[in-house]
């Protein structure tokens, strides 16, 4: 039988290998530490075959479930900070992150990030307005491990993401029935219960079921239950004589407050400040030409209510042929409600349109002229999404090579109802209330601007791809792949909610992507790889609305990406070093500050290096260093003054150092660990006129294995309570607003395995 991707066998192999760069050496002196040479990866090939990480001709990182727990990420995006080459801004809450990939220009959201579950992309458009993939995916104890592939073969396989693909693998059952119950609380009032159970249902039929229930006030302590949710996952695996069939479903209802930029350099406003609170979470807006009004709970924030159902069929056929079929269906609501700042703070005395005493709408307090106030927009985005994705690959294995033909087909849709803008004056205080006695507030007219739409769109992406890997000698291997993709979009927009279609799109374009690599292993555990690829980010619904004039003028709105990579890899029993140099060119990136504003079309170039170093001793000490150094430059832009500037929000360098140490305490085993993360200055705009200062952050934790079954863990995030800025005001870079990282918080959990 030729090698194949068997998630059960791969998962078992990971248990005896070092599961990630952050793993700890809790082996006793007479037990050999896990080997980094034998670390398995299951993502990144067209055929889906697993292999050794040290043999891979692309940059890939994996993080085990144990290390996900130790990192204690407050969102899926926050976990991505453990991946070299990735800069994740998770300061907005449990959803709505901004994720940037090495050298790729982006103004927000995560256009170069795709998330897969068991190898199938969860939603093919990696970014829509107010939606990126991490917003519709929640971490819990059902995840076995995550792999993150940058560049490499990405433009050819799956749905052709040229940037970062993260693949989350679910736990599976075995012949042994086992489970876990975990209770978590925190300094901000978390009440969370996780559970997972797995075992055998029948002969060679296995199950895993689990999920969570969660309630909390959130790290910024909003004054009400601002983060709430639950999730349930079921995973079924049937082993056949010649392969595996897998089916899973994941149902989620989870949301949290949307934290926005806050005024900077104002006394009393720090990283714990948030606009939303009990006195302003419920508000009424006016919209449409007929002056309709409706009340919304803006405390609902951003979240996901829906389900993902998918599976795979992995079969060994006769004569060294293999069939791998993956599918995924997603459907649900990804709404966004929040209070968005407009401009900077002001004194009430300077506000126009005051028509009498100014009082608080919730408390009735009368406010004087020296009260600090700010306009906050009451933004409502209601979004329904749906997608059905199929990925079929047929591979043939010979003595020296693997040859794969594949077909990818995905249909997806979105329905949007927006009313954004809707600015009104509020007291500038944590959870500051809405004011009455100001004309634009009282009339429910926006004090600045508004933008209302009703929109619907459908898309289909179909692609044929072919790939080959050929072992030239014991030391040399080459691989290549090509993909032909057809991309179709229909989209209708009613701007103003007046019943008239203001923008209509019927789009049908095809493109070719390709990749080629060479791998030289002059030792079993040491080698070099070189790779070049050419791919693209195709336009989705919002790209047409934001850039409609460019589209009707003949621009196809395709962001073309060229990447070069040169990697060195060295893995020994106790340590490993992976260095990846990269050079990218991205043409056609589009930036619109806010709806209706003119689009900026730019080209950027970037080069740099990723560093991923891991050390694990036999006496309990482990160390991980991951770092990225890069230089970005805007080489084409409508404003000549911008040429030569750095791409916005891209740091020149970032680094994470994670030491850990395991030791015995009587009959118990303790592990202490921490992370020192640092990032350089960034710019908030393409004009490089607003600097976001670099900062460092320390996280600490301790895990105590009380017995074989009982484990306690304490994690402290942002130990020194740093107020690092992740972004300025994306709608107005010169406005004195910015979004801080989360404040210091502590989390405690206790889990029981059986």
Automatic annotation (TrEMBL):
The compartments listed are: Cell outer membrane
Q: Which domain of life is it from?
A: Bacteria
- What InterPro entries does the record point to? Beta-barrel_TonB, Beta-barrel_TonB_sf, Plug_dom, Plug_dom_sf, TonB-dep_rcpt-like
Q: Which residues form the TonB-dependent receptor plug domain?
A: 55-157
Annotated signal sequence is: 1-25
The chain positions of domain TonB-dependent receptor-like beta-barrel read 274-719
Annotated TM spans = none
**Bilayer topology annotation:** Multi-pass membrane protein
Protein family membership: Belongs to the TonB-dependent receptor family.
**Name of this protein:** TonB-dependent receptor
From what organism does this protein derive? Alkalimonas delamerensis
């Amino acid at each position: 039988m030729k090698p194949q991707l068997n998630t059960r066998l791969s998962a078992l192999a990971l248990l005896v290998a070092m599961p990630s760069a952050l793993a700890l050496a809790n082996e006793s002196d007479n037990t050999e530490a896990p080997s980094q040479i034998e670390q398995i990866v299951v993502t990144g090939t067209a055929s889906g075959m697993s292999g050794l990480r040290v043999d891979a001709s692309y940059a890939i990182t994996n993080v085990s479930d144990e290390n996900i727990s130790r990192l204690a990420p407050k969102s899926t995006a926050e976990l991505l900070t453990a991946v070299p080459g990735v800069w994740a801004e998770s300061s907005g809450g449990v959803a709505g992150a901004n994720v940037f990939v090495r050298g790729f220009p982006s103004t927000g959201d995560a256009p170069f990030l795709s998330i897969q579950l068991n190898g199938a992309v969860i939603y093919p458009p990696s970014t829509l307005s107010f939606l990126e993939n991490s917003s519709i995916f929640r971490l819990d104890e059902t995840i076995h491990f995550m792999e993150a592939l940058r560049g490499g073969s990405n433009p050819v396989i799956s749905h052709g993401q040229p940037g970062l693909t993260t693949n989350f693998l679910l736990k599976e059952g075995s012949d042994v029935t086992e489970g876990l119950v975990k209770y978590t609380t925190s300094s901000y009032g978390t009440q969370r219960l996780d559970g997972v159970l797995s075992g055998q249902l029948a002969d060679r039929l296995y199950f895993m079921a689990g999920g969570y229930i969660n309630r909390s006030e959130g790290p910024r302590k909003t004054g009400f239950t601002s983060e709430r949710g639950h999730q349930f996952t079921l995973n079924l695996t049937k082993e056949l004589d010649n392969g595996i069939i897998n089916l899973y479903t994941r149902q989620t209802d989870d949301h949290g407050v949307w934290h926005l930029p806050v005024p900077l350099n104002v006394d009393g406003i720090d990283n714990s400040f948030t606009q939303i609170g009990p006195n302003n979470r419920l508000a009424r807006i006016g919209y449409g030409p007929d002056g309709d009004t409706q009340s919304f709970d803006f405390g609902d924030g951003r979240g996901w209510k829906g389900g993902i159902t998918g599976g795979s069929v992995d079969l060994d056929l006769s004569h060294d042929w293999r069939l791998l079929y993956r599918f995924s269906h997603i459907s649900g609501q990804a709404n966004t409600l929040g209070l968005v700042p407009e401009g900077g703070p002001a004194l009430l005395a300077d506000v126009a349109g005051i028509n009498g005493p100014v009082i608080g709408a919730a408390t009735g307090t009368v406010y004087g002229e020296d009260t600090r106030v700010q306009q906050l927009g009451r933004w409502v985005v209601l979004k329904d999404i749906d997608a059905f994705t199929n990925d079929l690959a047929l591979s043939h294995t010979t003595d020296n090579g693997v040859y794969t033909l594949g077909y990818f087909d995905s249909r997806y849709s979105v329905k949007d109802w927006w009313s954004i803008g809707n600015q009104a004056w509020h007291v500038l205080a944590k959870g500051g209330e809405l004011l009455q006695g100001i004309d634009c507030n009282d009339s429910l007219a926006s004090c600045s601007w508004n933008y209302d739409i009703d929109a619907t769109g459908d898309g289909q992406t179909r692609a044929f791809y072919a790939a080959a890997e050929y072992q030239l000698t014991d030391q040399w291997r080459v691989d290549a792949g090509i993909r032909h993709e057809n991309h179709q979009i229909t989209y209708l927009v009613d701007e103003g909610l007046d019943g008239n279609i203001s923008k209509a799109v019927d789009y049908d374009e095809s493109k070719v992507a390709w990749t080629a690599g060479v791998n030289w292993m002059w030792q079993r555990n040491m080698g070099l790889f070189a790779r070049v690829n050419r791919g693209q980010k195709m336009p989705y619904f919002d790209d047409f609305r934001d850039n409609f004039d460019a589209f009707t003028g003949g621009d196809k709105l395709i962001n073309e990406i060229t990447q070069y990579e040169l990697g060195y890899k060295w893995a020994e029993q106790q340590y490993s070093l992976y260095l990846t140099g990269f050079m990218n060119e991205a043409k056609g990136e589009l930036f619109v500050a806010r709806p209706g504003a003119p689009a900026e079309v730019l080209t950027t170039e970037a080069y740099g290096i990723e560093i991923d170093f891991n050390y694990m001793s036999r006496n309990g000490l482990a160390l991980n260093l991951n770092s990225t150094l890069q230089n970005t430059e805007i080489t084409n832009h409508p404003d000549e003054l911008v040429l030569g500037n750095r791409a916005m929000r891209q740091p020149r360098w970032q680094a994470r150092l994670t030491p850990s140490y395991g030791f015995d305490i009587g009959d118990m085993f303790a592990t202490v660990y921490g992370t020192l993360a640092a990032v350089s200055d960034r710019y908030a705009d393409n004009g490089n006129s607003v600097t976001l200062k670099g900062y460092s952050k320390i996280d600490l934790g301790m895990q105590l294995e009380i017995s074989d079954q009982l484990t306690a863990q304490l994690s402290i995030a942002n130990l020194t309570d740093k107020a690092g800025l992740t972004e300025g005001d994306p709608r107005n870079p010169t406005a004195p607003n910015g979004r801080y990282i989360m404040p210091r918080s502590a989390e405690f959990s206790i889990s029981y395995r059986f």
